[in-house]
Design brief:
The chain has 442 residues and is mainly beta. It folds into three domains: 103 residues; 150 residues, no CATH class; 105 residues, no CATH class. It has five helices and 39 strands. It has a 15-stranded parallel beta sheet that branches. Strands 1-2-8-7-6-5 form a six-stranded antiparallel beta sheet.
């Protein structure tokens, strides 16, 4: 048995290939130690039949090497449906009958191997049977191999190390949200966003339906895309918006004007309007509806499947530490606060509401952990962590630039026009000090 494993932590998958050659097969260029066969009585005098046997095993090796190459070629695909679909597509030619004839001639005969691949099952792991027949002149021998290819999502830990923003609801009237990491939100509607807002974030989870019609708000990080997960229906209707990364939908998908730059996996129906831009493929389990005279080339990108890969929203219960913990880790415990927090401060407050126009216009490296809400309305440029596990985080000031982490149970509202949120992974922000909240499974 031979195992081949490729991992990519950014994409969140692992692929394992197991090869069983009715005995043991070597890597390309080496011989098989043993192969089950009905013909074991070979003699030294039957050299041509012996050579045909080695040509057959070489055909097995060459086809397995083709499998390896295709696995590497398609390893960036983020679901088993896309991975196996691309591996087995006619353009891939991986399952097509193959003739290998790049062998040295045997006296006056040109050796060659004919290789046939049969898909045994449609599940994951997926098994393929390879039959290779080696020919030299009138002599031929056959070898069989069983290959198992498995696609498995890479499991992350119980924490939220790459978390940028975690909240139930989100209102964003600013210019852009940027970050290489994960944000987790409930669903969003068009009116929740500025029409031209940019969600330049690698991975986005929406724990609810998403309805964007009008404006041109973009989703996903164009230069480091990962995935967008929608636990509900997804509607991308009017508005020439770009969507980067693979999209996973547990519900129905309505698509009209958007530019889709990744693969899409829909566990439901699809309704099309005229007309989207689609770079890759869209896999769906339900029904496909589209206008008359819809572009045939676009329709070829829609592939009906029996199922798509399952996934879960990383819902977590977020709790504060005990007050003594904050005291022992350098936090100042306050009640309801309405004054400017000094740069570098670590505060645990009941509520924070800073709206004094005479106060500071810049805050650096502040951590505010609130038992209630956090409202900051007078600061244009600040960095830190705003954590309200039981309340809201509200930034009404226009033109605000925030760099850091936001965690809120009851909603994040960045309402000022022109605001920019440059989000940082929680593990990176607290790289030299303990994270001041607890994440646990609900």
């Amino acid at each position: 048995m031979k195992r081949m494993q490729d991992k990519n932590n950014n994409k969140g998958y692992s692929i394992v290939m197991v090869v069983i050659i009715l005995g043991i097969i070597s890597i390309l260029g080496m011989t098989i130690a043993s192969v089950t066969s009905t013909e074991h009585g070979l003699t030294r005098r039957d050299s041509k039949r012996q050579s045909a046997y080695y040509i057959a095993e070489s055909g097995i090796n060459l086809k397995i090497n083709d499998f390896r190459k295709k696995m590497i070629e398609h390893q960036d695909l983020s679901s088993e449906t896309a991975f196996f679909g691309s591996m087995e597509a006619p353009a891939s030619a991986l399952l097509a009958d193959t003739l290998y004839d790049d062998f040295e001639s045997y006296f006056s005969d040109q050796p060659f191997a004919e290789v046939v691949v049969e898909k045994v099952n449609d599940e994951n792991p997926r098994e393929y049977l390879i039959r290779s027949t080696g020919y030299i002149g009138s002599s031929s021998r056959e070898v069989e191999a069983s290959i198992t290819v498995e696609w498995t999502p890479q499991q992350s830990g119980g924490g939220m190390d790459d978390l940028l923003l975690y909240s139930t609801d989100m209102v964003f009237r600013g210019r852009s949200i940027n970050g290489d990491g994960t944000i987790v939100l409930n669903g969003v509607q068009t009116h929740d966003l500025n029409g031209g807002a940019e969600f330049n974030v690698s991975k986005i989870y929406f724990n609810g339906s998403v309805n964007l019609s009008g404006g041109s708000a973009t989703l996903g990080k164009w230069n480091n895309p990962d995935s967008i997960f929608v636990n509900g229906n997804l509607r991308l209707w009017s508005g020439n918006r770009d969507v980067y990364g693979d999209i996973h939908v547990k519900g129905n998908f309505e698509l009209k004007d958007a530019n889709i730059h990744g693969n899409v996996y829909v566990d439901g129906d699809i309704t099309l309007g005229w007309k989207p831009t689609i770079d890759n493929n869209i896999y769906y389990t339900g029904e496909l509806s589209y206008p008359n005279n819809f572009n045939d080339r676009l329709l070829e990108k829609f592939i009906k499947v029996t199922q798509v890969s399952d996934w879960q929203i990383p819902v977590r219960t977020i709790q504060l530490q005990e007050d003594d913990w904050y005291l022992s880790n350098g936090y100042e415990i306050r009640g309801d606060v309405s004054e400017a927090v000094p740069s570098g401060a670590r505060w645990l407050v009941d509520n924070y509401d800073f709206t004094n126009w005479q106060g500071a216009r810049r805050l650096d490296d502040v951590v505010i952990v609130s038992k209630g809400d956090i409202v900051i309305n007078t600061v244009n440029d600040f960095s830190g962590a705003l954590i309200a596990p039981y309340g809201r985080v509200i930034l009404p000031q226009g033109g605000t630039t925030f760099t850091g982490v936001i965690v809120s149970k009851n909603g994040v509202r960045i309402e000022g026009g022109g605001s920019i949120a440059n989000l940082v992974k929680i593990q990176d922000y607290f790289s030299s000090e303990p994270i001041p909240i607890l994440f646990s499974d609900p």
